[in-house]
Amino acid sequence: MKLIQTKQELKEALKGERQRGKTVGLVPTMGYLHEGHLSLIRKARQENDSVVVSIFVNPTQFGEGEDYNTYPRDLDRDTEQCRSAGADMVFAPGAGEMYVEDSITYVDMNGLTDRLCGASRPGHFRGVMTVVTKLFNIVRPDRAYFGQKDAQQVAVIRRMVRDLDFNIQIIEAPIVREEDGLAMSSRNTYLQPREREAALVISQALFLAEQQIAGGERRGDFIRDKIIEKISSQPLARLDYAEIVDAAALTPIRVIKGSVLIAVAVKIGRTRLIDNIKMEV
Ligand code: PAF
Fold it and tell me: Could you tell me if the CB of 30 is within 6 A of ligand 1?
């Protein structure tokens, strides 16, 4: 497995692959890998001749006062994990390599990015779309892999790929959870033991909603209120949002029907966590 730190070197390495007619799968990450990322790498391994994992903590998707500086980083550990999950190349550029100093161009979208996480993290998806576009242009993958935990990110990228005619298949893989239900996230490492315990309320609230819908409940407001009630019962939890939306358009739905996304964002202490459940009803 190769560790590559410049765009030029990566493009050259991939040119050979493409000339030999090989398919390329890209797994974009910000590193500090966990089982959720590894499941994406393994899936990419099964479906492509070559697998590239990008590891880049992207400054443009962090807002003022967010955790860009403290975001956990461990390239040696990540590289080892990529190797054992079957990656062929790890692309880990520095910020100066990824963005030219006087870069003034961004990729942005209306509507889809204003809701859910976009409402509390203005500019976040502009940063995500810009860096993902750059990665798509550098790697030119056949397939790109994203986790369902960032459900809005997946919806935004799918829409961007459609609107901008990228010839790339977007593959979404299910959320990987700890045994007690907490969705895996690099940010879980911020949680103190008491907060780690308190964070369980997030998945518990979602599982409760899932059960109620499976049992026949179809009122969106009712389910949303139940989620809010459950999360509010945990003193260390501060709700950012709980929404029941159409899984593709991300617009709120009153009657639960079709492809439904139940999405929540909650602050546990200083750590903002997101989680969701998708259902076909
Ligand atoms: O999901 C992430 O880790 C990031 O948002 C991504 C897609 C790698 C872009 O920086």
Answer: yes
Report the separation in Å between the CA atom of 30 and the middle of ligand 1, taken as the mean of its atom positions.
6
**Tell me: the pLDDT tens digits for 61-81?**
999 999 999 999 999 999 999
Scored b (16 or more CB within 10 A) or e, 146-176 reads: bbbbbbbbbbbbebbbeeeebebebbbbebb
Q: Is 61 in the pocket of ligand 1 (CB under 6 A)?
A: yes
Q: What is the pTM of this model?
A: 0.97
Residue nearest ligand 1's atom 8 by CA: 29
Domains of the chain: 2-173 (3.40.50.620), 186-276 (3.30.1300.10)
Sequential DSSP letters for 41-93 = HHHHHHH-SEEEEEE---GGGPPTTSSTTTS---HHHHHHHHHHHT-SEEE--
**Arithmetic mean of pLDDT, 247-267:** 96
- Which candidate in 37, 43, 143, 224 is catalytic? 37
Residue owning the nearest CA to atom 5 of ligand 1: 128
E strand map for 141-248: 143-147, 169-173, 237-246
